[in-house]
User: Fold this.
Amino acid sequence: MATSPGKSPALEAGNTETTGLLSATVVAGLRNLGAIISPPLTKLLIANSLKLTLHPDATIAPVPEIYASNAACAKQSEYAVVTLYALATKHGWDGLHLRQQLEQLGLDAGAVDELSRVYEDSRKELVLRQLQLGHSFPHITDIQWRIVCDVKSSTSDCSTGVANFHINLGNFRPSSGERVTIVEFVCNAEELQSLINRLKEIERHCNQMAVA
Amino acid sequence: MSSLRLTKQQHDHLSLLQRPAGDVVELCKSAFDYLINGPNPSRYETLAKKYSDSGSAEAVQQAVEALISLLISVTTRAGGDCVNMQAILRQTFPDLGDDVLEVLEQFVTSKRNFVEGSIKSANIRAYRLVNLDWRLEVRTASRSLLEQCHVVVTMKLYLHTEPKNENRELLAVDTSGRSEQELKAMQEDERLHRKDLLVQTDVSSLLHMIKTLEDALAESKTRRIRNIVDAIH
Assistant:
């Protein structure tokens, strides 16, 4: 996702804030909407660009008519919409602020309405999506366990006589729902109790923080 | 009670046991030392000189290794604690005197727990959780989202494939007075058997984890599970 500030030449319209954030390519892409690209296709293009932003792995139904004429313009506009939403989300713009910025760029009124409406409707999802970007440690959201007791093995003819816990920490891929294992380890009842105590200690501190 | 199945070669290597009980004690001590520190050729050289009539340093080392092999066989075979160890040893070594058999019995029983822990866990070495460090963090900004307030619990999991405390202590033993080679071997062992992992979670997932783990622990204490474990044992 292109979020780097553009080094654009002076734009025909727009205040300092917008010109600093949106490159000339992005502004040109936005200006195609409702102009070179017809209003119905503009609507479709914005919807597809949003889907691509929120779910990069999603399969988007092909719409050949978007690219039938002026394919280069359509691709530039897709890039522009994705960039606009990314930057607006990054800087915490609300719907009104986005509209003001777009109006200063002298875009087609219908395109401004559609871009603002879609942004307002999807703002929460865009924020959640951008929370996931960047570097972070593997995030655990799921835990699985099984209790296992050995009977016999290649190195010992007898059972250890204790049940062990196999603990698997993982999460789910947001796009496909597929479960991903982050780490798996074994512990006995005593070690498991100690782990639970340690996690409860963390929970206690979280509660104290919340109260404070 | 049948005898232990030792190969002809192992029997040959254990021919040094046909010496006075005091010498056998020395050999057993060398075997203990081998378990903790590995082979010690100079010690075997000294013992070989002492037994000038029978054998070289190599023969002494082979005898020490055969003793460890015997220890493993006894532990693997006789898992239960109500086993008459002396009877097994007497059948395995009918030509040894009572005093030597007594030394051997002490040898195999005193280190049985140590060996038992090792051979049972040597089977499939899974990581065990040794320690957990945690930190409560609030992420306030990132490149893609300048204004945010995201509470994150970051945890460092210390995992080790060496499950028994007594064995782990061997790895974490005081390093002073150890040779460079020994230290290198210990570091290599750490590299092979340790894994430290940084993970994070959120508060609601943390609560979910606690609840799930408590369910697992409660389940393990049910009569059903206890009956099954007792029946297997």
Summary: Residues 128-201 of chain B form one domain.
